[in-house]
Design brief:
Rossmann fold; alpha/beta; 5-stranded parallel β-sheet; binds 1-O-phosphono-beta-D-fructopyranose
Length: about 350
């Protein structure tokens, strides 16, 4: 049957979240000590594909929590245009996120940053023995999240909850509260699977748009990539209010618009979706405010991002099956992109 690995990896991911949090506890003291010593005035998160989108969310969370200037970029951008990103390498912390720890652009970007006198490199990876881990000063490992599938699911969510713990911990907040998400995740998966399967199987919908703002924007882009990689369906992602500035020309009866409502701007975000529904689009919300998919209420803002993922991963999975595709083996893709380092 198509997609057996992907299905298992999506369904079992809360256990991997728990493992990631246990691993975080092991490195927390080293992180705090390094953070106090470095006192960085800039933090840059890098990754490729899914892990670039993860970096978008991780950077937003860290700056929101600590007040330290944080940004995300694709590893290739740091490699080829570092002067547009790094202000003072000696006061910059680089956090490289990579499931495999072997992606050429990420390895080469880290090496270049270190050659430029970068202050320190931390990495979040599923492979603590990988070349990237060996280059890093501190490794945040998510070993239980290793997966067979090419498209990241369990690995992405586990590396993300590690980044959420990092933001909460470095800002002195009760990061252990993230353990509560394991039970929430199991409930969400069971409750939302039939809803997402029904939406995925609607052949009248030919385009999927994911809207997310603030820390949720990275998750919206990851949902877009899951839909693209797994099901070869036209998908895109935007900040919520940006959708009005042109892309909404595509909002009609053929469009599904999935809104990742935030805990803090939901009124503005709901208004966008109401306007698109009036144009004939099918909308669906994931929200702490009781949307079509209700997330838990009253969690701190840094706890939410990982909870949006399981339904969105299931949407891409079921869409692939509805088209007779195998999400375990997406067309043209490999689990890792390896390039000739001499080219850089
Ligand atoms: C990065 C990546 C994935 C993508 C595909 C190819 O891998 O681009 O994001 O989905 O699997 O590799 P990694 O650096 O996170 O291992």
């Amino acid at each position: 049957m198509n997609g057996q690995h992907t299905y298992q990896e999506i369904m079992t991911q809360p256990a991997a979240w728990e493992d990631a949090l246990a691993a975080f506890a092991e490195v927390a003291e080293a992180l705090a000590s390094s953070w106090q010593t470095l006192k960085p005035n800039q933090v840059i998160f890098i990754g490729c594909g899914s892990t670039y989108y993860l970096s978008l969310t991780a950077a937003a969370l860290l700056q929101q929590a600590t007040g330290i200037a944080s940004r995300a970029c694709a590893a290739s951008e740091l490699l080829l245009f570092s002067e547009t990103l790094v202000v003072d390498p000696a006061k910059t912390l680089l956090v490289a996120i990579s499931r495999s720890g072997t992606t050429t652009e990420t390895l080469t970007a880290v090496s270049r940053f270190q050659q430029q006198g970068g202050a320190a490199v931390w990495t979040i990876t599923c492979y603590p023995d990988s070349p990237l881990a060996q280059m890093a000063d501190i490794v945040l490992p998510t070993v239980a999240a290793q997966e067979e599938s090419v498209a990241q699911t369990r690995s992405f969510a586990s590396m993300l909850i590690m980044a959420q713990a990092l933001a909460a911990y470095l800002s002195g907040q009760a990061w252990e509260q993230l353990h509560d998400l394991v039970a929430y995740g199991r409930t969400l998966i069971n409750q939302t699977a039939p809803i997402m399967q029904q939406l995925a199987e609607r052949q009248d919908l030919v385009r999927f748009t994911f809207l997310g703002s603030g820390p949720q924007n990275g998750i919206a882009h990851e949902a877009m990539l899951k839909m693209t990689e797994m099901s070869l369906t036209v998908a895109n992602a935007f900040h919520f209010l940006e959708y009005r500035h042109g892309p909404m020309s595509m909002a009609n009866a053929e469009a599904a618009i999935i809104g990742l409502l935030s805990p803090t701007a939901a009124d503005h975000e709901k208004q966008v979706l109401a306007e698109m529904a009036a144009n004939g689009a099918t909308t669906l919300t994931l929200s702490p405010e009781g949307g079509d998919i209700a997330l838990p209420t009253n969690l701190p803002v840094w706890a939410y991002p990982v909870l949006y993922l399981p339904p969105l991963q299931l949407l891409g999975y079921y869409r692939a099956l509805s088209k007779g595709l195998d999400p375990d083996n997406p067309r043209n893709l490999t689990a890792v992109v390896t390039l000739d380092t001499a080219a850089f």
